[in-house]
Design brief:
mainly beta
């Protein structure tokens, strides 16, 4: 089950980024938001879910550079989530634990 609150670490080329991901899966649609302790918040978009697999896009702010769009695809197994995030600079892994 994808729905829930997740403590996520994204291993980006700009360093590890830790965020909280609040996910809501309804049928095949996935919605949610990312937030960080710094006060940054953003909604995901183009989200889809199929069983325990998912895909969505999110824009991460990058100081002095604007933002980068990440496309995350992954799977949930129990209270663990993992997958790959693709962006213009390449791809990186992410993992999360259910809160």
């Amino acid at each position: 089950m994808i729905s829930g609150k997740w403590d996520m670490v994204l291993h980006s080329p700009m360093g590890a980024k830790q965020v909280v991901f609040d996910a809501v899966a309804n049928e095949k649609e996935l919605t949610g938001k990312f937030s960080a302790t710094s006060g940054w918040n953003t909604e995901i978009y183009e989200g889809s879910a199929d069983g325990d697999s998912f895909r969505f896009k999110v824009d991460f702010p990058v100081p002095r550079m604007g933002s980068f769009t990440f496309t995350l695809t992954g799977d949930v197994e129990g209270d663990d989530m993992k997958g790959i995030a693709k962006m213009a600079l390449g791809k990186c892994k992410f993992e999360a634990k259910r809160l």
